[in-house]
TrEMBL record:
Gene3D superfamilies (alphabetical): Di-copper center containing domain from catechol oxidase
Pfam family, one: Tyrosinase
Metal-binding in keyword set: yes
Keyword match Transcription: no
Protein name: Tyrosinase copper-binding domain-containing protein
GO molecular function: metal ion binding; oxidoreductase activity
Region annotation Disordered: where it falls in the sequence: 1-21
Organism, scientific name: Pseudopithomyces chartarum
Length: 214
């Protein structure tokens, strides 16, 4: 699904609910295609093109968060990822997004409705939660509570052996749903407040809740 917006040459980016089953499959197939295409970045650990993007983000992490160019950097990053899907893997659509404010239940912080199976399910979706694993202190440096998973995802197109994460080393894709975090930060009222900011600086600061940028 790639429609022209009012600005010539700018793709319309749909959210997941707007995709047909065929479009969902097309996107997932393109991502798996990247994961089976040889890396070109030369970054440590990168084996395939999907790894290239993972490695770039990992390398740049100290310089692209809680800074004024956080949004600009990530917007360009996603644009280059979309271009790779299209030019290297034949994807015809635009990069979709998850409008999580449609699924969040801020009045029920422990609800798992936000992790709807149409997105986090085994069929035409991204796979579910991992089995419950108690994290080590090293794995949970922020001391986050309320985790419901943490192990290797058991189903979907990104479950092993079809897909592996290679940065920093080869391992299965793990996932840990923490309902209270998503239901709090995806609150539609927060999205409305964010979009009502008067300028880019106020918007960027509100996104990361940071008053002063480097």
């Amino acid at each position: 699904m790639c429609q022209s917006s009012k600005a010539e040459g700018v793709a319309h980016h749909p959210h997941r609910r707007q995709l047909t089953p065929r479009q969902k499959k097309s996107y997932l197939d393109a991502v798996l295609c990247l994961a089976n295409t040889t890396a070109i970045s030369g970054l440590p650990g990168a084996i395939n093109r999907f790894d290239d993007y993972h490695a770039v983000h990992a390398e740049q992490k100290p310089y692209i968060h809680w800074v004024g160019h956080f949004i600009l950097w990530h917007r360009y990053f996603v644009a280059t990822y979309e271009q790779a899907l299209r030019s290297e893997c034949g994807y015809k659509g635009a990069q979709p997004y998850w409008n999580w404010s449609l699924d969040a239940t801020p009045d029920s912080p422990n609800s798992t409705t936000v992790y709807h199976p149409s997105i986090f399910g085994p069929h035409l979706a991204f796979g579910g939660n991992g089995p419950k694993v108690v994290p080590t202190p090293e794995q949970n440096r922020l001391n986050i509570t309320g985790g419901t998973g943490g192990g290797c995802i058991p189903n979907g197109p990104f479950a092993a052996p079809a897909f592996y994460v290679n940065i920093p080393s080869k391992q299965c894709l793990r996932r840990d749903f923490v309902p209270w975090i998503m239901n709090s930060f995806a609150d539609p009222q927060l999205v409305t407040r964010l979009l009502s900011q008067p300028d880019y600086t106020a918007f960027a600061r509100d996104v990361e809740r940071e008053r002063n940028f480097v």
